[in-house]
Fold Transport permease protein.
Amino acid sequence: MSAYTALTAAGYRAQVRDKTTVFFTFAFPLIFLVVFGLVFRGRSVEESGFSYLSYTAAGVLSWGVANAAVFGIGFTLMQWRADDILRMIRMSPAPLSSVIGSRYVLALGVGLVQSVLFVGVAMLPGFDLVPASRWPLLIPVMVLGITTFLLLGMIIGSIADTPESVAGIANFLMLPMAFLSGSFFPLDAMPDWLQKVSLVMPLRYLNDAVSAALTGRGDLSDIGVGCAGLVAFAVVFGAVAARTFRWTKTS
């Protein structure tokens, strides 16, 4: 427990000291919200009748939280391994669960602040997002989403040995996923075959669950299916992360 507490405190201090990263972690999704809000203001998707904001707000929030979870743990594991910090932790009494647990708590904290800030801005005049009555379900959905993408970030951080490779792999996965999973463009307006392709992407399930919980674009079954999909991907990513994790560059 003392190792977990120490690692969590150290991770928190390192995050708040890196003011540039902190700024862009929270500002990046808001920038997309402002851009899409201005471009699609007052417009709706013909296929569903919902406003574009009901799609883009939930989708951009999902992408922002997922992106932060992937990059946060990915860069941390790579840097700690390169600096031999992981090797020193391995030689100490601290178990691996303390290392991952500390990063998990920090990722949950970042995701919570991101969500509150994002929804607060989206409710301002000009965006006029009205949360659905089931908005509290957004909390467990976000916890599952952060868990799933944290595990994906662990895989990336375990196989990449440089900051450039972490950024390259993460962007290769996250950017196409954002467009093909409905974060930036409504799935309802996409061809059927692209909608089917999105079913193999975890961000699709996070988008659907967040949309149903936050904006009411869907029902409880959509939240359930989205959560089930995230759990399935979390199990797969967790198994792969356990096999690929490395304390050092060679083992």
